[in-house]
Design a protein that fits this description.
By secondary structure, the chain is of the alpha/beta class. It has seven helices and ten strands. It has a six-stranded mixed β-sheet with strand order 6-7-8-3-9-10, sandwiched between helices. β7, α5 and β8 form a beta-alpha-beta unit. α3 packs across α4.
């Protein structure tokens, strides 16, 4: 039996039909993500990064090939796969506590355990004291923390992150990257980050997948052999950032 949190992608092809013509988006994608691994996916626009995340999440099942989680073919969404989008998608009429609790809406846990997990995850993301606040009373970074808590509260084995800090200012983004590193180390959860930010990808990832566009396919996979927690000034990280940038620039249209 496969270990919890392992993702096996084999020969995945995805296309859209535009003006009666097939437009290939992903071609021949094969990749294994190990339990507890943090995988970053980077590439220029149009390389299919977010499309791949949607397929893993189970939002789109119209593709060929196989995507298996823990040995089972993905056939739709699951409580075992949490996601954080670029916009926090919190409900404005609910408090932070209630928004985080939405992650347990379909859970069969008893009420006492639900309350305990909501409290634990609000603490995990550093939002103690804001339980009864509403989203409009929080900064963008705090709202994203709440979105991360909501994605993790039911203890999924996989966390998918689709440009989660893309809309934030540089300082907030840097702080949340450090927070995400800490949370990932605490939760030991298989994580996949899609980002345009090469520094973010290398800083957080155990491996970085560089994708090539039109159609989307894997160009190169680079290991990041630097132990966590990491320092941004580490020369090994800086060298890898330059290498990843070089791979992306080589295939980007000029």
């Amino acid at each position: 039996m496969a270990q919890p949190g392992v993702i096996d992608i084999r020969g995945v092809n995805k296309q859209y039909v535009v003006n009666d013509k097939a437009l290939p988006v992903l071609v021949g994608l094969s990749l294994t993500i190990e339990p507890g691994e943090f995988l970053s996916i980077v590439g220029s626009s149009g390389c299919g990064k977010s499309t791949l995340l949607r397929l893993i999440l189970g939002l789109d099942v119209d593709y060929t090939g196989e995507i298996r989680v823990d040995g089972e073919q993905v056939k739709g969404t699951s409580l075992d796969r949490g996601i954080v989008f670029q916009d926090h998608r919190l409900f404005p009429w609910l408090t932070i506590e209630q928004n985080v609790g939405l992650g347990l809406e379909n859970s069969t846990w008893p009420a006492e355990r639900k309350r305990a997990e909501i409290a634990r995850h609000i603490e995990l993301v550093g939002l103690n004291g804001f339980e009864t606040a509403y989203p409009h009373q929080l900064s963008g970074g705090m709202a994203q923390r709440a979105a991360i808590a909501r994605a993790l509260v039911n203890q999924p084995s996989i966390l998918l992150l689709d440009e989660p800090f893309g809309a934030l200012d540089a300082l907030t983004r840097t702080n949340l990257q450090q927070e995400l590193q800490r949370i990932w180390q605490t939760e030991k959860i298989t994580s996949i980050l899609v980002t345009h930010d090469v520094e973010e990808a290398v800083y957080l990832g155990d491996r970085v997948v560089v994708m090539q566009p039109r159609p989307g396919r894997i160009r190169k996979i680079l290991d990041v052999p630097v132990p966590h927690p990491r320092e941004r000034t580490d020369p090994a990280l800086k060298a890898l950032i330059d290498e990843v940038r070089g791979e992306i620039l080589e295939v980007s249209p000029h």
